[in-house]
Amino acid sequence: MSSSIKIIIVPGNGCTNPFIANWYGWLHKKLTEMKIPCRLEAMPDPYTASESEWIPYMHKELNCDENTIVVGHSSGAEAAMRYAEKYKLKGITLVSGCVTDLGDENERASGYYNRPWLWEEMKKNTDLIIQFGSTDDPFIAWSEQQEIADNLNPELHKFTDKGHFMSSTFPELLNVIKTKLK
Q: Which one of 14, 108, 117, 132 is most buried, by most CB atoms within 10 A?
């Protein structure tokens, strides 16, 4: 892949300081040390993660484009998928993604789940789709994650012991990104 590729990390909802939450800051630091352009920022409306705010922010402020791999976690994965329905990206990497509001009022308010997913548009607008999921995720049933896998046919990394991927490091993700940038 080209050296012009950049990584944008889009965190899950509830994240007001992504540099100290989960693995986001760790991944940003590792990629930066490798001289891979990477952006990680607090998103607007961090608690609801409103699609009406996040998608324009990704487009206008984070400058996601055809040279961007968006790494989205949880609500960030849904944002990556909805973004890829509309805009060209190099790729999307989905971590703990889901396809419904999970019966949660706050998730419903985000706006991501009020219409069908445009799977074919996502595939057409990306060169690369990677998915990380774990069968023991306490928030997102495997069936939700499997629906993404069934519809996008991603490079799937399925685990049984990673929960919602909320650890402080994520070497498996870093290794996959490194192989894609060679």
A: 132
Query: Which single residue is written with the structure tokens 């990584």?
Result: 7
- Gap between the Cα atoms of 107 and 104, Å rounded: 5
Active site residues: 74, 137, 164
Contacts of 26 (CB under 8 A, 6+ apart): 168, 169, 170
Closest CA to 47 of 79, 15, 83, 9: 15
Of 64, 80, 82, give the one whose Cα is nearest residue 72. 80
Cα-only R_g, the chain: 15
Strands (E), the chain: 6-10, 38-40, 68-73, 89-95, 126-134, 155-159
pLDDT in tens, the chain (182 residues): 445 899 999 999 999 999 999 999 999 999 999 999 999 999 999 999 999 999 999 999 999 999 999 999 999 999 999 999 999 999 999 999 999 999 999 999 999 999 999 999 999 999 999 999 999 999 999 999 999 999 999 999 999 999 999 999 999 999 999 999 98
For the whole model, what pTM was predicted? 0.97
